[in-house]
Amino acid sequence: xxxxxxxxxxxxEEFLRVEDVPMTKEEIRVLVISKLRLRRGNRVxxxxxxxxxxxxxxxxxxxxxxxxxxxxxxxxxxxxxTRNLERFGVTDRVQVISGDALEVLKGFNEELDGAFIGGxxxxxxxxxxxxDKMLRRGARIVGDAIQLETANKLVxxxxxLGYKVxxxxxxxxxxxRTSTGYAMIARNPIFIIVGEKK
Length: 198
Ligand SMILES: C[S@@+](CC[C@H](N)C(=O)[O-])C[C@H]1O[C@@H](n2cnc3c(N)ncnc32)[C@H](O)[C@@H]1O
Known about the structure:
This is Probable cobalt-precorrin-6B C(15)-methyltransferase (decarboxylating). Helix content is 32%, strand content 29%.
């Protein structure tokens, strides 16, 4: 499938899903891609790519001249990401890497223009320190978090490296049609933490 629109925020239902592989939802994905401030030709990493939904939108943003590295330690996520990349016709510019992010980063030596960390990990602080070595000045790390503790880890790690940090808490409610009108059903608030390398 070749996604025909210029705007981001591919509807969630367009992605293939499997059980136990979580996905960054459409409205959060839009913000994440926007906060990364990507340009055509950029090189970016999606740490914990899950379904590949963020990797797909990164790939559309950086274009065929760019490069996306999509990493996940769950083989189910790696396979699903590959299938979603095929579905959106962007396999040419994405390298899917199976493995623990920290291990992958140890053997990685490309300069990066940005990175997204989707969700919590025990190794969050070390992952951020490793990413920092790959990022050019002005590049951004964007992380999202459901838990306060994960958001705090993201903020503290980025601050300790001297990044300029932005913190947001996003609450989305989706209208569900009832017999009398639309009831707004709240989703979990999500922290979005942005760090810009000075
Ligand atoms: C919330 S999901 C990411 C969703 C993804 N952004 C998407 O749009 O589908 C988090 C993913 O991070 C992966 N993960 C967590 N810690 C990791 C680590 N240390 N190394 C690699 N992958 C990791 C999990 O396996 C999971 O697939």
